[in-house]
Amino acid sequence: MNGEREPVDALDVERLAAQRGLITLFDGVTFSRRRDLERVDAAIRDFDFTPLPIYLDCPPEVAHARIANALEHDQHLARDRTPHLVYEVLARFDAPPPNALVINATLPAAEVCRIAVEAVAQIRHARRALRVAH
């Protein structure tokens, strides 16, 4: 090996996390097509997990401006992101599935996170209640 990292398939990461009982998140660039979400859904159901697609509803011009600003100030963690990537992803992005949690991504980041964490907590609570009932 020449020091370069081997590419990692996100679905392999998801399977590994599911085997260990971990919660994982992948972004829309990774899973912008419905068939990709369906593959994840099938893989994690083998481990009795509940998928929760989260769709951050953000106008493309807002996403473009946010990425440009983050890059300008060296604050974007994903170094491969560019403002133009917003439009590339949008061109291939499938509509979120009916079970997706849709969050208004123009809300403050803390509020977006709170909504997502609350939804995950509700699912976990409901699943625990079902296990206790059986």
Task: List the defining traits of the structure above.
134 residues, single chain, 2 strands, disordered N terminus, mainly alpha, two-stranded parallel ribbon
Written account of the structure:
This protein is mainly α. It is 51% helix and 6% strand. The protein has one domain (10-133). The chain is built from five helices and two strands; from the N terminus they run ααβααβα. Strands 1-2 form a two-stranded parallel sheet. Mean pLDDT is 79; it is low at 1-8. The longest helix has 25 residues, at 109-133. The termini are far apart. The protein has helices at residues 10-19, 34-45, 60-72, 85-92, 109-133; strands at 54-57, 101-104.
List the helices and strands and how they pair.
Elements: H1 10-19, H2 34-45, E1 54-57, H3 60-72, H4 85-92, E2 101-104, H5 109-133
Parallel strand pairs: 1-2
Helix pairs in contact: 1-2
Kindly summarize this structure in a few lines.
The chain has one domain (10-133).
Instruction: Calculate Rg over CA atoms.
Output: 17 Å
Number of individual domains: 1
Shape: globular
Query: Distance between termini?
Result: 51 Å
Portion of residues within helices: 40-55%
- Poorly predicted regions: 1-8
The helix/strand series, from N terminus to C terminus, equals: HHEHHEH
Major sheet: order of its strands? 1-2
Q: How many strand elements? A: 2
Mean pLDDT: 79
Residues in β-strands, percent? 5-15%
Instruction: Give the biggest beta sheet.
Output: 2 strands, parallel
Class of secondary structure makeup? mainly alpha
Number of helices: 5
